Amino acid sequence: MTLGEALTVARGKIDRLDARLLLEYATGCTHTDLLARPETPVIAPAWAQYLAWVERRAAGEPLAYLVGEAEFRGRIFQVSPDVLIPRPETEVLIELALARMQGLERPRIVDLGTGSGIVAISLALECPQAEVLAVDLSPAALAVARTNAGRLGARVDFRAGSWFAPLAGERFDLIVSNPPYVAAGDPHLALNGLPFEPQMALTDGADGLACIRAIVADAASCLKPAGHLLFEHGYDQGEASRNLLTAAGFQAAFTHPDLAGIDRVSGAHL
Ligand code: GLN
C-alpha cells in the first residue's frame, strides 16, 4: 500500500483534508511527502491504524479524539473524550481577558470548568505576570489539563471541585469560564461530533443558563474590588447573561460577538 492509495481508499468516506491529516498522523509523513512521493509505501501497522481511523471518522468521531490533540491559538493541546475539543470562538474570551489584565501588576485569574485547560494555559502563557488558577469537577479533565500545562510550560494551579467550592476565601481580579451552556434536548447535541464529547462539558441538563446563573451568583464574593467576570455562552444567551450580571450588582454588562458575528462572550465588572 502507498500514500497515494491510502488517500484513494478514504475518498467518498471522509473529508479529503481529514484523510490527509489522519494519514500524516498515522505515518509521520508530511503534506509535502504526500504530494511529491505518493508512491511511498505505507508500513502495515500505519496502514492498519489509518484504516481504523478512517472508519471511526466516517462514523462521526471527531478527528481531535482520534489523534489525541487539537490546536488552539497556535498551540497544540492534548485532548481526550474527557474534555471538550477546543473551539476557535473561545479565542474571544482570551482576547477580552488579556485586555482587562493589561497594566495590572500581579493579577490573580481563575478559570472555572477548565476542561483541557486551554483558557487557563493560554492566559498563563500570554499574561506571564498573572497568577492563574483553574478548577474542574472532573478529575479526568484535570489530568489532561495538567499534562497540557506541563507540556506547554504554563504555571497553573489546578483544583478539583465545583465552580467556587475549591476557592474558599480567595479573591481574584478576573474570573473566566467556558461553562456548559447548551440546553438539554438541543438538537445541536446530536450533530457534528458532539455525541462523542463529554455531555457534562456541553449541557447543564436544564435550560442552558443554569451554570451561568450559578457562576454569576457567586462571582462577586470571589472578586477583588473592580474585578471582572467574563464567560462564553450560546448565540441566544447574551441578553439573559447581561440581565443576570446586572441583577447580581455588576457594572457595565456587555456582550461581544465571535469572529462569525455571533454573540459569544458576556462580562462585566464590579
Ligand atoms: N460552543 C460549543 C458548541 O456549541 C459548546 C461549548 C460549551 O458548552 N461550553 O458546540
Describe what this molecule looks like in 3D.
The protein has 270 residues and is of the alpha/beta class. It folds into two domains: 3-59; 81-269, Vaccinia Virus protein VP39 (Rossmann fold, 3-Layer(aba) Sandwich), CATH 3.40.50.150. The protein has helices spanning 3-10, 16-27, 31-36, 44-58, 63-67, 91-101, 118-126, 139-152, 199-202, 210-219, 238-247; strands at residues 69-72, 75-78, 108-112, 131-136, 156-160, 172-177, 223-232, 251-257, 263-269. The chain has a seven-stranded mixed β-sheet, with helices on both faces. A two-stranded antiparallel sheet has the order 1-2. Helix 1 (3-10) packs across helix 2 (16-27), helix 2 (16-27) runs antiparallel to helix 4 and helix 6 runs parallel beside helix 7 (118-126). The mean pLDDT is 97. Bound molecules: glutamine (GLN).
